[in-house]
Design goal:
Layout: E1 2-4, E2 7-9, H1 47-61, H2 68-138
Antiparallel strand pairs: 1-2
Length: about 140
């Protein structure tokens, strides 16, 4: 035991991963006075107190908002999801524009084919008309 401000306090050994005092869940075991041979017997807290301490420890461990790392991971996941949504939206707009361009391309191709056919008809008419005029001049 070590002396603290004129009184005595029991020395607490480091718990798991160097955390002193068994992570503060319950007090260290005390030595009952008058036990034969001074052998320590574990002092168990009453069940209700133990239950309350465990519940508090669990609530702290899984508090809303969680740890900083968990919040950062959630924020990163949310940013990634927003980025995906933006990309999907942009792809959707591009698909719609491509469909519109394909439709316009087909319309333009039909128009060009129609114009080409009309030009061929006019050329044939002109050739016939010229041939008739030539025949008239020969007669």
């Amino acid at each position: 035991m070590e002396e603290v401000y004129g009184g005595y306090r029991p020395r607490i050994s480091p718990g798991p991963q160097g955390v002193a005092g068994r992570a503060g869940l319950w007090a260290p075991a005390s030595r009952p006075r008058g036990s034969p041979g001074g052998a320590p017997s574990p002092a168990a807290p009453p069940p209700e107190a133990l239950r309350r301490r465990l519940v508090r420890a669990l609530q702290r461990a899984v508090a809303p908002g969680g740890s900083r790392r968990a919040r950062e991971a959630e924020a990163a996941a949310a940013r990634e999801e927003r980025g995906r949504a933006r990309v999907e939206s942009a792809l959707s707009r591009l698909r719609a524009e491509l469909l519109e361009m394909r439709f316009q391309n087909r319309q333009l191709a039909r128009t060009l084919l129609d114009v080409n056919m009309k030009m061929q008809l006019l050329r044939k008419e002109h050739e016939l008309h010229t041939a008739l005029e030539f025949q008239k001049t020969l007669q």
